[in-house]
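Pasting as-is:
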Amino acid sequence: MPDHVPVKSEPITARMPALELPQSDQLPAEIMSFPAGVHTINAKQAGKAINTSVQVDAQTAAVMQATLEAHMAASPQKPYFDFDHDDKDASAWPKAFRWEDGSNGRPAGVYAAVEWSGSGSAAIAGKDYRSFSPVFYVDERKPARVTGAPLNMGGLVNSPAFKKQAPIWAKDTLSAAQPPNQNHTHMPDKTDTTPGATPSPAAASDTSAIQAKEQISALQTQVQALQAKDTERRKTDAKAAVDAAVARGALPPKDTAIQAKWTGLIEADPANADLLAAMPGTSLLTPVTQPGGHVQAKDNLVECLKKLKAEQDVDTRSAIYAKEVSPLFRDSEFRMGPILAANSLGTLSGELITQRSLTLLKRAFPALFAISTNFTNEAASFGQTVKARLRTIPTVTDYNVLTGYATSDASAVDVPVVIDGHKAVQIAFNANELGSTSRDLFAEQTEGAHVAIGGDLVDALLAVITAANFANGTVQAVAGFGRPTMTAIAKALTTRFAPRAGRFAMLNLDYYEKLGQDASIVSLATYQKAEIITENQLPPVAGLLPIEVQNFPTVGNLTGFAGTPDALALSTRLPNDYTQAMPDVPSNGSVQIVKNPDTGIAVMLVRFIDHKLGAAVWRVAYMRGAAKGQAASGQRITSA
């Protein structure tokens, strides 16, 4: 899901057929509610006829199942299907939605397990209805995606808009012992071929079979012609995509082998054309026009990486990374390795891996950036006390005609933080590991490295949340935790004049899950904010942003902590460069300071070769400390 996609407030009524049923007394346990794929349908919204395209896939099934569960949890009335969208009698009650991928012979789509009502059973058994029409909400994308459904989630109808499946009840030719969607071969009867004899039913069947074979042969010829046209079209499209990539500098113009490889990949799967189109080209081939009509030549990526490699100043290197390199990683398909290898820039790989790892901290550990931080690239001694600045509310003074305006007290105060943690993430690969694969083993550690660093920083922060540091608390068992508790916490913070900006509520896994089950949040997720369901991202409640914390300590029955940024302080520093202790002794490795522009965190990157073990080693080292800030701005949450 994107960050914000508008959701249409009125539900769409769209009709479509459902699962075929053999002619028997047995009612279907499931019906198809959405056929798979992208469909342009004629539907109704707010009583008006509309024409729209809707995409149906596995996510649709997940959204419908989550919506069903939300309705069941929030309302005493069960979700239901009706007749002809009249909002009256129930034809069935949906029990579950699931995705069918088509691999087991059934048509792909979203299926609903149903419990038929008496009138619904009679309608299906009597063949009064042959189709199902869902009611659902969509967003405004093209094609639209299903985002939820009202309590009346659909109904039996007789005028389908989707033409992908068979009706609910089968044709009269199907017997109870013959399931639909299966091929059966019948042996012909022996037939009297005497001239003038009346053809038997079996002979007529043979004639029909011959005609059918002729029709199949003609169709096969047509299919072969279409396949030939499709192959030719794929070749033309593949050549056009490769030529465009060469023109913008994404592929080398003289490397015909790589061009041929890309051409083959796109011919085999046209989706590969999108991957090639996403590859960055050389900006030197594209002039950049500045306001005023001036044309300015812009450095391409390779030139920017060369400048990054040559720059010695830590802050300048950080700025180059932020402007030229970091945006490229937003594309999940982007690979830096081939560019570094092709341009003798391999020494940058360790720094780029570290930068990428530190950037991921902000997304994976939002708790680290909800509080006051003091991240610098300054070195410090272990056990040294540094200062972290907290924002406070300035005082209001009176104007005096003789002395004028009085200066308010400072709006920030310094809190001492003891640097009591010297930490590192060190990864080594021996000769056998490095020689057994062509993969970039160190680059693959990006995810693990940021999880390790983030987990350590969060642990240091949570260790400060004690009853001795924060006397104010809220006691609430998980069973009763919800929006009323959050509202009471917000009131307590406001009563103590805690700032309203940046309020947060760090919660352990159980309490975060319970808050997500609150009826008000469930209703919001069902009708307005699908990301609550699809991404487990809760909205602010009573001005407090819920943050899920995986490793919350349980000392003192602690389950959460609410507050403002000035309640907690976290500082990081660099360890001293031990390789400089003996300047005249050569260092068997590389020591570099890496400062991430997005988070502000700086680390010491050390890389060296252990010749005795035959291993290459990559290490990220840092020092950190945490402290309490304004006690009145924090509120502990405990289970007892």
